[in-house]
Amino acid sequence: MEIRAIDTPLLDWTGDCLAIGLFEETEELQGDVAQLNEKFADALKEIIEETEFKGKEGSSAVTRIGGGSPVRKVFLIGLGNQETLKLDNVRRAGATVARLAKKEKCKTVGVNLPTANNDPAATVQAIAEGVQLASYQDNRFKSEPEDKGFCVERVDLLGFAGQEAAIARANSICAGVNLARELVAAPANEVTPITLAETAQKIAQEHGLQVEILEREDCEKLGMGAFLGVAQASDLPPKFIHLTYKPEGTPKRKLAIIGKGLTFDSGGLNIKAGPGSSIEMMKMDMGGAGATLGAAKAIAQLKPDVEVHFISAATENMISGRALHPGDILKASNGKTIEVNNTDAEGRLTLADALVFAEKLGVDAIVDLATLTGACIIALGDEIAGLFSPDDKLAQQLAQAAEAAGEKLWRMPFEEKYFEGLKSGIADFKNTGPRGGGSITAALFLKQFVKETPWAHLDIAGPVWTDKENGCNNPGATGYGVRTLVHWVLSQ
Ligand code: BES
Ligand code: MN
Ligand code: ZN
Q: What pLDDT, in 10s, does the model give residues 355-408?
């Protein structure tokens, strides 16, 4: 699909369909939209009346233009209230346009949407993101493509000539989001620690990044007992992935992004059993790693003045004669000992050694993303990630980045007192505490592996996956986190 920003007047544009954004409570069609209505013999007015189209956010109407018109169809796209129009409204409008174009078999689309936030560049970027993200279709595992291979070929954003850079930005971000979606949606017999490491190597090769894969022996030498404990039952070798983007010249800042990389989480001997445990969904437990690699792909193309380290301790959490016994004690690479009272709280064990590794790089900030707890889904539902950080400034930066990116997150309390719940009689602490506040104790556990670097943790267990069409997301993996990470890195 090609997206262009052009200045062809609405009345002169020709192609399969024109998509026109309308605000709620628009009494009369105005300006060139009114003229277009005249040109099309009142077709717009008629469809508005027939379908009682009110311009509500998320609503749309389609009409066919007869009489051999050079425009075959018109889509009306509801934008909601004019006063509260935000970037995410135009992003979602872009998504609606893409879905309708596909449904109505329109290969060339003209889009007439207003500027949001008084910012044409951000508007174009948001629309282009919405269009591309909603067009995503995963046919990799189908013998016949679901959509019979139909593709929208060209989308023209009218009235935005000169915004090519914004489109290029959207293209890079969407390439990153779609990589994350592919990684998360692929099953555990397809995406393994080995293939995840290969993906990192491929990104490095294609975009000129440095990559280092630490093998089991390398991790042993570094004392990564927590990570290796989780990995010990799997027949597949663990891979500690470290991908580095370095800008030309001296970087303004050095950052680390860490993603939980469990390519499958069976729970271990505390196996995920029974209904509701969703063991069959646990291929998505590398959603943090997916977002990390997706962000790496985007950032490598966007080339900010910031050094970024992309890290994932990738493995599976399996059962075998070599599995961790519940109650085993592990020693992490910072010397801390952990009583594993639940083998299903494995993500935090892998992240522990990744956090220690990241801090040793001497970075200015660390952000980790992890499908860490069911408790976070109970707290915030499927659409909102939990943000945990003892650092107000970093938390604010991430909240702003998420807002601009159109991804939802909510800051959770970092209640140090709850660390009491992780007290162990025999080791330094346990890996799980009481049921209540489970996402907070998980964050407090992670904090034990960060000494002084500003750090934030995003629990993305909910938004990494969606069962239904939602905003720019189609059912399945969402690639959550990539957009927020890219915005955050670019804002440094
Ligand atoms: N990967 C899971 C968390 C998860 C649950 C992600 C549902 C996505 C959907 C994590 O490793 C886990 O099993 N967490 C346990 C922690 C508990 C044992 C303290 C949980 O949330 O039940
Ligand atoms: Mn688990
Ligand atoms: Zn897990």
A: 999 999 999 999 999 999 999 999 999 999 999 999 999 999 999 999 999 999
Residue 225 to residue 427: CA distance in whole angstroms: 14
How far away, in angstroms, is 285 Cα from ligand 3 center?
5
Ligand 1 atom closest to Cα of 435? 19
Positions of CATH 3.40.220.10 in the chain: 2-160
Cβ atoms of 373 and 264 closer than 8 Å? no
Confirm if 432 and 342 have CB atoms less than 8 A apart.
Answer: yes
459: Cβ below 6 Å to ligand 1?
A: no
pLDDT score recorded for residue 110: 98
Q: Is the CB of 344 under 6 A from ligand 1?
A: yes
Architecture of domain 171-490: 3-Layer(aba) Sandwich (3.40)
**Second CATH level (architecture) for the domain 2-160:** 3-Layer(aba) Sandwich (3.40)
Q: Are strands 465-466 and 476-477 parallel, antiparallel or unpaired?
A: antiparallel
Residues of the chain where predicted confidence (pLDDT) is lower than 50: none
User: What pLDDT is recorded for position 173?
Assistant: 98
pLDDT at position 146 is: 77
Ligand nearest to the CA of 439: 1
Is residue 342 in contact with ligand 1, taking CB distance under 6 Å?
A: yes
- 3-state secondary structure labels for all residues of the chain: CEEEEECCCCCCCCEEEEEEEECCCCCCCCHHHHHHHHHCCCHHHHHHHHCCCCCCCCCEEEEECCCCCCEEEEEEEECCCCCCCCHHHHHHHHHHHHHHHHHCCCCEEEEECCCCCCCHHHHHHHHHHHHHHHHCCCCCCCCCCCCCCCCCCEEEEECCCCCHHHHHHHHHHHHHHHHHHHHHHCCCCCCCHHHHHHHHHHHHHHHCCEEEEECHHHHHHCCCHHHHHHHCCCCCCCEEEEEEECCCCCCCCEEEEEECEEEEECCCCCCCCCCCCCHHHHHHHHHHHHHHHHHHHHHHHHCCCCEEEEEEEEEEECCCCCCCCCCCEEECCCCCEEECCCCCCCHHHHHHHHHHHHHHCCCCEEEEEECCCHHHHHHHCCCCEEEECCCHHHHHHHHHHHHHHCCCEEECCCCHHHHHHHCCCCCCEECCCCCCCHHHHHHHHHHCCCCCCCEEEEECCCCCEECCCECCECCEECCCCHHHHHHHHHCC
What is the location of CATH 3.40.630.10 in the chain?
A: 171-490
Q: Which ligand is nearest to the CA of 438?
A: 1
**With a 6 A CB cut-off, is 326 part of the ligand 1 pocket?**
no
Q: Which atom of ligand 1 is nearest to the CA of 441?
A: 19
